[in-house]
Amino acid sequence: MKVLEIKNVHKVYNSSEVKVHAVNDISLDFNKGEFAAIVGPSGSGKTTLLNMIGGLDKPSSGVILVDNTNLAELKSSGLIDFRMRNIGFVFQSYNLIPVLTAKENVEFIMGLQNRSRKEREERTRELLKAVGLEDRINSKPSKLSGGQQQRVAVARALASKPKFVLADEPTANLDSKSTETLLDIMEQLNREEGITFIFSTHDARVVKKARRVITIEDGKVISDERKH
Amino acid sequence: MIWKTAWKNVWRNKIRSLVVIISVTIGIFGGVFAVAIMNGAIEQRVDAALNEEIAHIQINDPGFRDNYDIQLLVNNPVEVIDTILETPGVEAVSSRLVLTGMANTAASSTGVQILGIDPEAEKRVLQLYKTTIPGTGDFFEHESRHNLAYVGHALAKELKIVRYRIDKDVLDSLAARGVPAEVMDKLALFTGIRFKSEKSFKKAVKKVLSAKEQHDYGTAIREEAWSFRKRSKMTLTFLDSQQMQTGAVFRIAGIYDIKNTMYEMSQVLVKKEDLAVLANLDPDACHQLYIRIDDLENTEEVAGALAKKLPGLEVMHWKEIQPDLAMMTEMVQKFYAIFMVIILAALAFGIVNTMLMVVLERTKELGMLTAIGMNKKRVFNMIMLESVFLSLVGGVAGMLVSQLLIAATAKNGINFANYAEGLEAMGYPAHIYPVISTSFFVIVVMLIIITGILSSIYPAMKALKLDPAEALRTE
User: Rounded distance, CA B369 to CA B372, Å?
Assistant: First the structure.
């Protein structure tokens, strides 16, 4: 079952003098339950591609279908709502809300989704347990290590029960032990909850874990390998 | 969720938030307390007017007010009084004779209104008797003595039945009021000398004290040094019902002090029975009926009912008798609101500035929130709530401080003795007890919330313009 289809997507940035073809005719399909890494050097266009998949940026041409919804057809308010219901985000610099505790950060999106308090609390506890932070439930981000913060971010991304999770260089700021823990957790959640993970990275450890590796250079897909 | 996050966001940068909150606190405190003082002065003025001067409702012949014609009496006064007392809402009634005449002493003379009253009935309607200066007499208690008069403080001074003297008691009470020893030494020179007028006393004091000493302690010295000459007499002259000049000597048996120079100067009270005999009128005759009702809220209704029952008479309630008082209470409400709006407008700029910094500082976080699905309305609400919380915390603190100070001054009031002369000339008290109505508090809270909302609009619009992808890239 396809959760995401990318068809002939281009992204051209018109800076004052030169045209930059950040994404040049990319077509990709993602099925439910994939654990895929988009790999490439910086400037290769992977973040641009990820932003377009996440509805944060619009393609210059081409179509992106998330669960058969064409993102281009959504208005900006509809797009925000769509992101809230369908896409989980994990950012390179964690981006937790500093004034809220781990629990409140995870609950936040469910609050936006108007879920009941009981449901929010159950799911939050379950997710924080899954990422191994059940004892840090009431800690503020400033009291957590980078790895722990990113695990909270993963729990937050999953809280809304999204169609897929987009992670932009999730391990870039982490040491190898934290990276490993995070990857194990993401993989486990991927298997258990059947949630599709797509991450951009140039971290070899992440590439090793991924079951599908898409390599991009100069805005084009140069290889798309599936392991196993 | 949004409320909680907004509240926590307020405390993200504690110092900055506190600076804004304190400025709002001071602004609101200043405004509310100033309003409380003005409000207190006006309430006391209205209260004094109703309880000491004009009562709640007055009834008289329709032409009487035009020129106080002695012939325009209330017909059948006994029945009229019965009718009034039967009317629901009426608490008490007092009948009065009102004559225009002159008050004379050896030293001075002045035009006055001579009011013939029945002390017992009068005490039930007005509380003027409570303002009697202790030791000046007992007009309201003497049942049998005739030709007693009850005069105002200002008139007593005008008629020069006051005297000024410095003795040990005066020096002691001046010491208690903090007058320094060197001033006291100079004053001690006057021990035993009686000054028959304020003018001569002032002149003597001026000779020994420096200008600064006079400015600082002059009022206190005059307040302590004066006393009334006991058993003073004055002649009241007026025209009787046959337009014949008549008059009699009255002994002053009480001086009232209501801090309203104009009223004190013009109203002399005597017993109605004495005045009726002198003016050649029937003992039951009266020109005016003063009425006290049990609930001021029903003023108009009771006055309406009385007017219906007494078709030949003019019935006026206090708002008609002194429209300036009624207008004042309404006008100042608007004035207070404008006053607060100006203060809050100034504070709003501080809040806008802070909220702009908040948005700028949190660009990345706001981008993240939009990315994960927080819609514009919610982002707007969150910023707006933060701004409302900031202003509301400051506002509530400001009102608490004002309320505390109002409570602290409720017992002793605030003494504006230096301005007493001017204030009392206008009928306003110099000793003010600040008060605030609950409705004013509610209005201020609403204004504060509106300020919070208005000052969040521009910063929140800035937040809404952020492009999430771009905002996430900022460091």
Answer: 5
Per-residue pLDDT of chain B (475 residues; tens, 9 = 90+): 889 999 999 999 999 999 999 999 999 999 999 999 998 988 888 888 899 999 999 999 999 999 899 999 999 999 999 999 999 999 999 999 999 999 998 888 999 999 999 999 999 999 999 998 887 888 888 667 889 999 998 898 888 887 788 888 888 888 888 888 888 888 888 887 888 777 788 888 888 888 888 888 887 887 778 777 777 889 999 999 898 999 999 998 899 988 888 899 999 999 999 999 999 999 999 999 999 999 988 999 999 999 999 999 999 999 999 898 888 888 888 888 899 999 999 999 999 999 999 999 999 999 999 999 899 999 999 999 999 999 999 999 999 999 999 999 888 888 887 787 788 777 787 788 998 888 888 999 999 999 999 999 999 999 999 888 888 887 6
Shortest CB distance from A109 goes to which of B364, B373, B472?
B373
**To the nearest whole angstrom, how far is the Cα of A228 from the nearest Cα of chain B?**
32
Nearest chain B residue to A100 by CA distance is B5
CATH topology of domain A2-226: Rossmann fold (3.40.50)
Give the whole-angstrom CA distance, residue B257 versus residue A83: 77
ipTM for the assembly: 0.92
Domain ranges of chain A: 2-226
Chain A residues with CB-CB distance to B469 below 8 A? 51, 56-57
* Tokens at B201, concatenated: 């006393």
Please give the model's pTM, rounded to 2 decimal places: 0.77
Domain ranges of chain B: 2-48+325-473, 55-150+248-321, 162-228
Cβ–Cβ contact B11 with A under 8 A:
yes
Neighbours of B169 (CB within 10 A): 11
